[in-house]
């Protein structure tokens, strides 16, 4: 059965500056000993196996070697505690790749699926700055604009589930700890842009 999800994506990863994995399409390693990331998705519209997904939020928590193309990823899924059991089940099926679409490309890289946890997820935007909260984790970023007021973007990304265009949104502060994965700091890599998945 065909499915689709669309909304807005907010990423924080442990690299400084702009994550090399993105613009090199995973040819170059990250800037830290392990590549850790939180990829939050605010779902504004969509349907999976007959389940309406509008209003759901989720976050992928990732731990991988610095050269992400080597595989061996540890990945967990956090789903907003306000989601129904049917919505949680649907998101699990999507993220696992069993329904195809962009998440399926991550399958060969996955070593350990850490499971699904439910906790409150809050994504707010104020004065152009977004803050993502889930459990005890939080990160704040701001989309970067040029002198003309246009969002600075990376194009031609073929190794990222929210690509092929990523909007730069550096993270000013971050403290992420979920599913056994912890990272944080100031001035870290971040992205934010609309996403659209289907399978």
What fraction of residues sit in β-strands?
Answer: over 45%
Order of helices and strands: EHEEEEHEEEEEEEE
How far is the N terminus from the C terminus?
8 Å
Provide the low-confidence segments as ranges.
none
The overall number of domains is 1
Q: How many beta-strand segments?
A: 13
- Please estimate the helix content: under 10%
Instruction: Supply the helix-strand structural class.
Output: mainly beta
- SS field, number of helical segments: 2
Largest sheet data: 11 strands, mixed
What's the alpha carbon Rg, rounded to whole Å?
Answer: 16 Å
- What would you call the shape? globular
Question: Explain this structure to me?
Answer:
Helix content is 8%, strand content 51%. The N and C termini lie close together (8 Å). Strands 1, 2, 3, 4, 5, 6, 7, 8, 9, 12 and 13 form an 11-stranded mixed beta sheet that branches. A two-stranded antiparallel sheet has the order 10-11. The protein has 2 helices and 13 strands; from the N terminus they run βαββββαββββββββ. With 199 residues, it is mainly beta. The relative contact order is 0.24. It has helices spanning 20-23, 85-96, and strands at 4-16, 35-48, 51-52, 57-64, 73-80, 110-119, 121-126, 129-134, 137-141, 153-154, 166-167, 171-178, 181-198. The chain has one domain.
């Amino acid at each position: 059965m065909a499915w689709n999800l669309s909304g807005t994506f907010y990423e924080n990863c442990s690299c400084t500056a702009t994550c090399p994995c993105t613009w090199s399409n995973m040819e170059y390693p990250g800037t830290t000993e392990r590549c850790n990331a939180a990829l939050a998705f605010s779902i504004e519209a969509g349907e999976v196996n007959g389940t309406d997904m509008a209003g759901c939020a989720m976050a992928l928590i990732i731990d991988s070697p610095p050269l992400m193309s080597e595989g061996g990823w540890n990945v967990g899924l956090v789903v907003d505690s306000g989601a129904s059991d049917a919505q949680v089940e649907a998101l699990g099926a999507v993220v696992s790749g069993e329904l195809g679409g962009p998440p399926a490309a991550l399958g060969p890289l996955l070593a350990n699926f850490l499971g699904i946890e439910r906790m409150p997820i809050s994504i707010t935007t104020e004065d152009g700055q977004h803050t993502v909260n889930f459990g005890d984790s939080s990160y704040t970023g701001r989309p970067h604009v040029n002198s003309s007021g246009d969002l600075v973007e990376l194009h031609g990304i073929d190794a990222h589930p929210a690509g092929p265009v990523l909007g730069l949104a550096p993270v000013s502060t971050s403290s992420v700890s979920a599913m056994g994965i912890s990272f944080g700091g100031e001035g870290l890599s971040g992205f934010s842009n609309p996403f659209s998945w289907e399978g």
